Amino acid sequence: MDVPRRSSARFPSLSADAGHYESFYLKAAHPSEGVGLWIRYTVHKRPGEGARGSLWCVLFDRSDEGAPWAVKHTSSDVGAREHEYIHVDDSVFAPGSVAGHAEGERRSASWDLSFDAGEEALHHLPRRWMYRAPIPRTKLLSPHPGARFSGRAEVDGHSVELDGWRGMVGHNWGAQHAERWIWMHGAGFAQDGEAWLDAALGRIKVGAYVTPWIANGVLSIGGERLRLGGPERARRTDVSESPTRCDFALPGRGLTVQGTVEAPPGDFVGWVYADPDGSEHNTVNCSVADMRLTVSRPGRAPVSLDLEGGAAYELGMRETDHGIAIEPFPDG
């Protein structure tokens, strides 16, 4: 699998003065019960300082009246040995497996999961030179955009068994987050259990100017990957977002995907995401959201796809008055 690396987890080409962040993450959702896991391994390095690694874990459960349960653990022991994506302390994210444990704020969680390699990696940026260019400052891809997960997680004393849960593995890195971003993923739709959508949208700050929404992603349906967005389609990309809902129209070549992804406020977790320069975003995430899509192609009848309790929606923003509680864990 071709996974570009600009990794401070390996460090060989990263100067001591450079700032950098990087993450490997997974999202997995039960096919019908509205239960989901989101796990993230990160590297954060401020200019002139050493790198720090963090483990993030959230259990979402729509049947529980409480908010999502979250924990984060940070350490200076971060790296990537051969055959690993990344490790923090003795917690390892590797191709086909992710195992670890996190403790913080009197909370604890552990996980031991396996996942199938699934399909080939999804490179969100449509041209390979974009992964080498200074802009966008955030690079992203999904090594496993349509994975299935099995194993066990122990979260706050409760055992969660995963048996073929649908989800994905993602990877992003760079010198700075987008000024504003959206990430969404859906898999296991009622009308097509093998279909999936993986899309990232960003507004990028260039000097004093902030670009319109630029989308990059793929809808996989009927065994065919349909690429969506790209800079050349920014004017036809339509997005109306809030912390708990996003309505969107994403154009592609010969198609448009219109849809909505949403969840109640109580199903979201809030985090602080820090940039290497010390600035911060508030980020809200729900990995058990509802998603509805309509796929329109000339000469064909529209296709509807519905997913209840199995989609991910994340919004990164500068504002702090969004109404979602922020977890008590600093970043950076």
Present the secondary structure layout:
Elements: E1 20-29, E2 35-45, E3 51-61, E4 69-75, E5 78-79, E6 86-88, E7 91-94, E8 97-104, E9 107-115, E10 122-123, E11 138-155, E12 158-174, E13 180-187, E14 196-203, E15 205-206, E16 209-210, E17 214-221, E18 224-229, E19 238-242, E20 245-252, E21 255-262, E22 269-274, E23 280-296, E24 303-317
Antiparallel strand pairs: 1-2, 1-12, 2-3, 3-4, 5-6, 6-7, 7-8, 8-9, 9-11, 10-11, 11-12, 13-14, 13-24, 14-17, 15-16, 17-18, 19-20, 20-21, 21-23, 22-23, 23-24
Amount of helix: under 10%
Question: What's the architecture, going by CATH?
Answer: Beta Barrel
Radius of gyration: 18 Å
Structural class by SSE content: mainly beta
Count of individual helical segments: 0
Largest sheet: 12 strands, antiparallel
Summarize the structure.
This protein is mostly beta strands and 332 residues long.
